[in-house]
Amino acid sequence: MGEKSEFEPGDKAPNPGVYMEVGEASFHTEIQDPQMITMERGETFPQTTNKDRKWKKKSKAKVH
């Protein structure tokens, strides 16, 4: 089983990098001006601006 790619507030960052908010169904709707944060491994994800959003690593958040 692979590493989980979406994280909820309170989860720990598995790797350093830039993470951004994604919607519940991010491939259907784009979030205008999503919140982006820089995290180090082991840091705790902060609250999102909406309870239905999650954090995802920026390089993996883009949909083709």
Automatic annotation (TrEMBL):
<feature type="region of interest" description="Disordered">
    <location>
        <begin position="31"/>
        <end position="64"/>
    </location>
</feature>
<dbReference type="InterPro" id="IPR025549">
    <property type="entry name" value="YjzC"/>
</dbReference>
<protein>
    <submittedName>
        <fullName>YjzC family protein</fullName>
    </submittedName>
</protein>
<dbReference type="Pfam" id="PF14168">
    <property type="entry name" value="YjzC"/>
</dbReference>
<feature type="compositionally biased region" description="Basic residues">
    <location>
        <begin position="53"/>
        <end position="64"/>
    </location>
</feature>
